[in-house]
């Protein structure tokens, strides 16, 4: 089953740790692959919900090298970026890639299946801000 | 229906178990809870047995107990969903289908049982409907068939729609193969007309004036429609026919009959869904225009009478709607916001459009009362009216303190953001009266001018509304207070959009507003709100043009900043934040412009309120940093600030010192020596006192030392130039300014300061080498006082002696902090050149320093990690250690050659062991180090025949196979799967750098053959003691064959990746690919 939420948070430290743990359980036969998939899909949903409710803000300054937008997912590649957090803390980095997408359930709403090919057709509904 | 007395014993036993498990608990004692849990386990166990198929129908037929019936339906659903259906023969499956259908046809079941039963039918359809290759499925027309059974049994339409909604949801959420998915969607499509017809019938009945016999019918029908929309199989033109009756159900003030609240809410929810995902072929006439007509009719009180004749400003002028109107707006806010989101482009493009819209049946009623002509209002009228409605909604939004959270609508703020974007995106096409010459700006058409006038008037009204929304009110409840900052921030975002439309007019309005309120002596809350609005729009201001805005000079002059209400912490914090935000603006003004703001900030530094003091320190820091040169002329005044620093709370002293230091930095370096001495001297003295008191009062001394270290860090940061180092173009020494700093550094006074600073650091590191807090403070200080040559300050200390201090501290007590600091300092010792052509090798002195440091660090670390369990128990040390080694491998590769006898081999064994760690950061660090080291040694070996070439040969001979073995075991499962990408990089380093020639030469073989590092793979993989995995001999052979025969790194990596999947037993499963995460 394709996850109806973005899977980008699986690459976070928390997501990586969860994937590794689920891998171990599946390998040892303690849980089925199906359940493993459900756990990861639930993680995708929970993270998308949690991120949507975060109030923290940061402003970013840097040199924009490249950007692109595909299926409402934006990629920004920045050099010499400075993040100014809401609490005045600043963090600088020489390179950073930002992936921005609308709230996760937008994927679920937009999922359709092409009757000819059976492939998932991404929708084009306007997303929420942020 | 059977009674409990006639049921077979096994069924009776199951019923008794269910009734006991579902019975209300007699007590909440642990024993009672345990007993219930025991019963639940028994039920689950029972449910998993093949015999439980036989329980389903008797349980569903059990009269009078909903729990028993529910468990029967639940058992059917759970067994089917779990895939236990395969245990039944084809005939039994058909029998089960018919039995469940018959059970679904029994009327009068409780809702929970009914829904579970529908879920079981849906699950069964997902397994029986798709065909198996050539053969057809076992349940064609399952939707129609089930509906027929339900209708024949006399189930009300609400129940039928409940089933239909569940059917669509089950299919869209099912995990099916593509072909099966297509077949299921086809099965839904074949029932589409039935569904639409059924919904249309209920809708027509609900729209009639006659009393509705079943109030649940309409919500269920509309919920069904909402469930079927995402599948995209209901024809758009058929759904369009449902729109007029849906709009007719919305609140209609002009209707003689009162609106049914349940019906209107259900209709509004459905219309919101349709607005969110309208069928592709729908134009604005199908849904948007009828809804705008409804809005104009339902909220006619927003623009009563002949408001179109008024001036634009008055027409959009906000006024508080009466309570009834506010309630009406709030109750429809979700629909209005959804309409605004979906129709924003229509609104932006239609503001001055004179075209009349066609009225539908639903929208005709009531148009005469609002002054609309019989042939329909113009688009421009509808768009402008909608703007006023949204203004009114914004004005009442979030107003009601006691608002039920569930009823809270979406915020109207988002509409203004979308509208501003839509206004900018209107194509300029045919609206120009004349084309103009090439390259010359074209004249605005009357339509464009009119649109601009309307949008400006609307946003001017909006900024007035929003200002009133961010006024702090005394007496708010806790929840309201907690939500207020987030709401204010959202309002601030909307103001930015308003600024893009209004530009300087917005600043002029707010500055005049705050001035008028101060003149009138209005409450501080109103003044504070306006200051907040001014602060919020700063990010949109163009820094080049902001300086020319007269409004800002009034704001920061004596007219406003000199007369702000005193004694209110909230006003002071906001005003200080405003200065902080606009600190860069003063750099574009004459120095005198700083006066009022600077006085305000300095006056707040010693405020008793912690929040005010913090904000003042932050504002001062930003102000001084951005206006160094202007403030350097007033250095005497800053001496007074320094003299009074005793009154500033400890937590803010570092910021104040940083502010003063940043002003000192703007002085000629030789003139800055005395002020720096005056700043640093007392801090070092207090640090010395803390060190002296460590024996008597260790905790207090440690806290005092950390405070002084923070202050030193602040001073060092302040002294660092604000200018971008990339701006220097003559050399990497900082140009003329850099030369002046270097001269000043030779002054005996600065030499003495740095010497004292270094001694203090060395003593702190010696005394508190095990303390994490001190380590963190030192880490910050090191970052501030070590710099690139271009960034040298009077306080900068060379990295070499500091590295010695760190190594000695690590020797006394090894922590990750010291290793991280060593990494930073080693990187400082080989700084990147500003110009690539200037790249020079590190000096012999620096090389020797790093070699010595390496010896000490490796010795200390191996002592800790070599102990049993040392690597597992100290993951932070492992990670920082290999990160440090990676840095050395990159910049000082030959330093590894100078390690004492045996230390290098121990180091390599440590790295190899780390490849099997389960803590991924340690493993990744070790992997990265080994990859870098192999690459660097191979790269420099040809030009370092005396040092690196023998080292490479030694590595290949002694450790080569062990590295390969650890790597392949990692692929086989010894390492977590998330580090596969890191292991693949290491494999790529091995096979590319240690090719046949290199390995043969290292092993003293003159003949060709062996395959280099690739040649080690078969012996490792087929060894008896290789890591046990799911990869059989065939998979291993496939992997080995690709690795040995391929010369392509890409193919080697692909083969290794596939081997990982096989070894983990995930071949042929989508889980293996879907769960893999990048490392």
UniProtKB/TrEMBL annotation, chain A:
- Organism domain of life: Eukaryota
Enumerate the Gene Ontology biological process terms: transcription initiation at RNA polymerase II promoter
A Pfam family per the record:
TFIIA_gamma_C
Domain annotation Transcription initiation factor IIA gamma subunit C-terminal: ranges = 61-102
Q: Where in the cell is it found?
A: Nucleus
* SUPFAM superfamilies in the record: Transcription factor IIA (TFIIA), alpha-helical domain, Transcription factor IIA (TFIIA), beta-barrel domain
InterPro entries reported in the protein's UniProt record: TFIIA_a-hlx (IPR009083), TFIIA_b-brl (IPR009088), TFIIA_gsu (IPR003194), TFIIA_gsu_C (IPR015871), TFIIA_gsu_N (IPR015872)
Q: Which cellular component terms (GO) are annotated to the entry?
A: transcription factor TFIIA complex
- Main localization (coarse): nucleus
Q: Which residues form the Transcription initiation factor IIA gamma subunit N-terminal domain?
A: 5-51
Query: Keywords of this protein's UniProt record, alphabetized?
Result: Nucleus, Transcription, Transcription regulation
Q: What CDD domains has UniProt attached to this entry?
A: TFIIA_gamma_C
Family the entry assigns: Belongs to the TFIIA subunit 2 family.
Q: What does this protein do?
A: TFIIA is a component of the transcription machinery of RNA polymerase II and plays an important role in transcriptional activation. TFIIA in a complex with TBP mediates transcriptional activity.
Protein name as catalogued: Transcription initiation factor IIA subunit 2
Native species = Roridomyces roridus
From TrEMBL, chain B:
What transmembrane ranges does the database entry give? none
One GO BP on record is: protein import into nucleus
| Entry annotated with the keyword Cell membrane | no
Q: Where in the cell is it found?
A: Nucleus
Q: Which Gene3D superfamilies match?
A: Leucine-rich Repeat Variant (1.25.10.10)
The name this protein carries in UniProt is: Armadillo-type protein
Organism expressing this protein natively? Roridomyces roridus
The GO cellular component terms are: cytoplasm; nucleus
Could you say which protein family the record assigns here?
Belongs to the importin beta family.
Q: What is the lineage of its organism?
A: Eukaryota, Fungi, Dikarya, Basidiomycota, Agaricomycotina
Q: Which UniProt keywords apply?
A: Nucleus, Transport
PANTHER family recorded: IMPORTIN-13 (PTHR12363:SF33), TRANSPORTIN 3 AND IMPORTIN 13 (PTHR12363)
Where is it predominantly found?
Answer: nucleus
Q: Does the keyword ATP-binding apply?
A: no
InterPro entries named among the record's database cross-references = ARM-like, ARM-type_fold, Importin_beta-like_NTR, Importin_rep_3
Please list where the region (Disordered) is annotated: 430-450
């Amino acid at each position: 089953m394709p996850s109806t939420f973005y899977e980008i948070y699986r690459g976070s430290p928390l997501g990586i740790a969860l994937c590794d743990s689920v891998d171990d359980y599946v390998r040892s036969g303690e849980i089925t692959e199906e359940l493993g998939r459900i756990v990861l899909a639930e993680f995708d949903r929970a993270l998308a919900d949690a991120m949507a409710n975060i109030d923290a803000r940061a402003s970013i300054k840097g040199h924009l090298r490249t950007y692109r937008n595909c299926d409402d997912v934006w990629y920004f590649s920045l050099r010499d970026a400075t993040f100014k957090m809401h609490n005045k803390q600043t963090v600088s980095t020489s390179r950073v890639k930002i992936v921005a997408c609308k709230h996760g359930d937008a994927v679920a709403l937009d999922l359709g299946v092409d009757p000819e090919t059976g492939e998932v057709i991404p929708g084009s509904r306007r997303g929420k801000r942020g | 229906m059977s009674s409990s007395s006639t049921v077979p014993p096994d069924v009776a036993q199951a019923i008794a178990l269910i009734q006991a498990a579902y019975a209300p608990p007699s007590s909440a004692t642990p024993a009672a809870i345990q007993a219930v849990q025991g019963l639940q386990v028994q039920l689950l166990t029972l449910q998993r047995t093949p015999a439980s198929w036989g329980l389903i129908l008797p349980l569903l037929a059990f009269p009078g107990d909903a729990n028993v019936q529910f468990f029967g339906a639940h058992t059917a659903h759970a067994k089917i969903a779990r895939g236990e259906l395969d245990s039944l023969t084809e005939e039994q499956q058909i029998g089960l289908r018919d039995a469940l259908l018959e059970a679904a046809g029994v009327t009068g079941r409780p809702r929970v049982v009914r829904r579970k039963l529908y879920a079981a039918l849906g699950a069964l359809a997902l397994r029986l409907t798709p065909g198996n290759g050539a053969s057809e499925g076992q349940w064609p027309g399952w939707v129609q068939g089930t509906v027929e059974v339900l209708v024949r049994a006399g189930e009300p339409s609400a129940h039928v729609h409940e089933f239909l909604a569940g059917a669509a949801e089950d299919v869209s959420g099912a995990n099916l193969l593509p072909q099966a998915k297509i077949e299921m969607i086809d099965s839904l499509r074949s029932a589409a007309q039935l569904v639409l017809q059924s919904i249309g019938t209920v809708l027509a009945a609900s729209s009639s004036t006659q009393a509705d016999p079943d109030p649940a019918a309409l919500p269920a029908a509309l919920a069904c429609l909402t469930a079927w929309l995402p599948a995209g199989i209901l024809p758009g033109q058929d759904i369009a026919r449902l729109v007029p009756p849906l709009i007719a159900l919305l609140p209609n003030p002009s209707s003689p009959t009162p609106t049914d609240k349940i019906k209107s809410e259900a209709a509004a929810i459905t219309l919101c869904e349709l607005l969110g995902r309208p069928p592709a072929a729908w134009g604005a006439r199908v849904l948007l225009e009828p809804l705008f007509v409804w809005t104009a009719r339902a909220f006619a009180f927003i623009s009563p009478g002949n408001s179109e004749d008024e001036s634009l400003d008055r027409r959009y002028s906000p006024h508080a709607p009466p309570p009834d109107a506010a309630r009406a707006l709030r109750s429809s806010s979700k629909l209005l916001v959804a309409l605004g989101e979906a129709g924003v482009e229509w609104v932006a493009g239609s503001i001055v459009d004179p075209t009349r819209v066609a009225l539908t049946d639903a929208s005709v009623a009531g148009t005469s009362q609002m002054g609309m002509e019989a042939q329909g209002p113009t688009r421009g009228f509808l768009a402008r009216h909608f703007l006023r409605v949204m203004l009114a909604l914004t004005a009442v939004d979030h107003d009601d303190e006691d608002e039920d959270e569930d009823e809270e609508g979406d915020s109207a703020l988002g509409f203004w953001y979308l509208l501003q974007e839509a206004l900018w995106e209107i194509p300029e096409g045919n609206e120009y009266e004349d084309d103009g010459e090439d390259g010359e700006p074209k004249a605005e058409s009357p339509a464009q001018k009119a649109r601009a006038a309307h949008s400006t008037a609307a946003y001017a009204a909006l900024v007035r509304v929003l200002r009133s929304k961010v006024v702090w009110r005394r007496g708010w409840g806790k929840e309201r207070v907690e939500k207020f900052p987030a709401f204010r921030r959202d309002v601030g975002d909307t103001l930015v959009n308003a600024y893009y439309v209004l530009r300087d007019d917005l600043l002029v309005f707010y500055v005049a507003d705050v001035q008028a309120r101060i003149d009138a002596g209005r409450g501080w809350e109103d003044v504070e709100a306006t200051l907040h609005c001014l602060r919020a729009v700063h990010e949109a201001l163009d820094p080049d043009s902001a300086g020319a805005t007269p409004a800002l000079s009034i704001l920061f002059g004596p007219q406003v900043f000199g007369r702000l209400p005193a004694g209110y912490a909230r006003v002071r914090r906001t005003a200080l934040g405003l200065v902080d935000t606009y600190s860069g603006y003063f750099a574009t003004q004459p120095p005198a412009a700083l006066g009022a703001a600077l006085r305000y900030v300095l006056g707040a530094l010693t405020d008793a309120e912690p929040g005010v003091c913090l904000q003042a320190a932050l504002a001062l820091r930003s102000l001084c940093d951005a206006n160094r040169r202007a403030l350097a002329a007033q250095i005497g005044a800053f001496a007074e600030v320094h003299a009074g620093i005793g009154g500033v709370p400890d937590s803010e002293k570092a910021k104040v010192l940083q502010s003063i230091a940043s002003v000192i930095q703007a002085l000629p370096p030789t003139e800055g020596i005395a002020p720096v001495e005056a700043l640093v001297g007392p801090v070092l003295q207090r640090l010395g006192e803390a060190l002296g008191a460590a024996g008597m009062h260790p905790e207090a001394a440690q806290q005092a030392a950390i405070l002084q270290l923070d202050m030193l860090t602040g001073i060092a940061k302040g002294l660092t130039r604000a200018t971008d180092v990339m701006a220097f173009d003559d050399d990497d020494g900082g140009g003329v300014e850099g030369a002046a700093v270097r001269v000043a550094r030779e002054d005996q006074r600065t030499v003495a300061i740095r010497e004292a600073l270094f001694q203090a650091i060395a003593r702190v590191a010696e005394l508190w080498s095990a303390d994490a807090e001190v380590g963190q403070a030192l880490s910050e200080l090191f970052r501030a006082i070590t710099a690139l040559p271009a960034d040298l300050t009077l306080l900068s200390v060379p990295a070499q002696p500091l590295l010695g201090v760190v190594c000695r501290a690590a020797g006394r007590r090894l922590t990750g902090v010291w290793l991280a600091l060593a990494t930073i300092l080693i990187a400082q010792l080989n700084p990147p050149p500003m110009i690539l052509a200037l790249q020079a090798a590190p000096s012999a002195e620096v090389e020797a320093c790093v070699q010595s440091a390496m010896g000490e660090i490796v010795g200390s670390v191996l002592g800790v990690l070599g102990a049993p369990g040392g690597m597992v128990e100290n993951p932070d040390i492992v990670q920082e250690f290999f990160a440090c080694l990676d840095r050395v491998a990159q910049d000082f590769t030959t330093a590894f050659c100078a390690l004492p006898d045996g230390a290098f081999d121990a180091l390599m064994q440590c790295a190899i062991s780390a490849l099997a760690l389960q803590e991924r950061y340690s493993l990744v660090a070790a992997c990265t180090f080994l990859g870098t080291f192999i690459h660097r040694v191979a790269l420099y070996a040809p030009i370092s025949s005396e040092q690196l070439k023998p080292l490479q040969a030694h590595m290949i001979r002694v450790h080569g196979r062990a590295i390969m073995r650890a790597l392949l075991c990692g692929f086989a499962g010894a390492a977590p799967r998330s580090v596969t990408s890191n292991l693949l990089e290491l494999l790529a380093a091995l096979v590319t750098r240690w090719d046949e020639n290199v390995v043969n030469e290292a092993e003293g073989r003159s003949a060709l053959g062996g395959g280099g590092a690739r040649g080690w793979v078969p012996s490792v993989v087929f060894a008896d003691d290789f890591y046990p995995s799911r990869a059989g001999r065939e998979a291993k052979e496939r992997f080995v064959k690709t690795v040995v025969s391929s010369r392509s790194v890409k193919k080697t990596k692909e083969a290794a990746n596939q081997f990982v999947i096989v070894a983990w037993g995930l071949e042929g499963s989508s889980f293996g690919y879907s769960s893999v995460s990048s490392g």
